[in-house]
Amino acid sequence: MELIPFKRPTDHYEEKIGGIDEQICELIRKRKDISNNNPGYPPFEYISKWAEKFNLYENQLKSVFSSLWNESSYKPVVEPDGFRKNLQILKITEKDDSLFYVTFIRQYSNASLINFNIDRNDISDSSNCKSKHSSFELFIGEEYNCRMKSGCGSGEHYCYNFVVSPALPDDVSGIDLTFIEYEIPLMEKKKVDEIIIHL
After folding, report:
1. How is the chain classified by DSSP, letter by letter?
2. For the chain, N or C: smaller number of CB within 10 Å?
3. pLDDT digits (tens, 9 = 90+) for 158-187
4. Which residue ranges form the domains of the chain, and what is each CATH number?
């Protein structure tokens, strides 16, 4: 997801609270470390209790914790730049009568673009015109930042493009692409499946 550039809402800043704001940043970092960067979301009862205890607005706290929960959407966006070459891949995995495959990887100087396709065997289901859309995340390793750039499809065929930065090596032999499927809507981020394509 690409975010709209954030514009500072006011020129005013009370310098007396600079130390407190720094402590807030320190606590956010500590929270990430203690939770192994998987904090979840506090129960609403906790938020209600904290709002009352500290004389804050519940909806404001819900928004703060939602922002912390969805941290990955704030990662800097890398746009592929400096096209170098196409790597022909065509690796296919079959699961539950569906085909999952990577046809090519576009190599750029600063990133790679992975083309991921799905062909579902839903011809016998005449009601399938409503389309089964999911959300996918790609995991390659801790050293790579992966984000979905685009996706489309309906019925039996879907196609997704993922930007990976930094760029993958030109020899991708032995790399595992793990595509994690989530139900839409993503509020609870319910994992549906995991597809591994070994290059």
Report:
1. -PPPPP--S-S---GGGHHHHHHHHHHHHHHHHHTTT------HHHHHHHHHHHT--HHHHHHHHHHHHTGGGGSPPPPP-SEEEEEEEEEEEEETTEEEEEEEEEEESS-EEEEEEEE---TT-GGGGG----EEEEE--TT-EEEEEEEEEETTEEEEEEEEESPPPS--TT-EEEEEEEPSS-TT--EEEEEEEE-
2. N
3. 899 999 999 999 999 999 999 998 876 555
4. 17-74 (no CATH), 83-198 (2.60.40.1640)
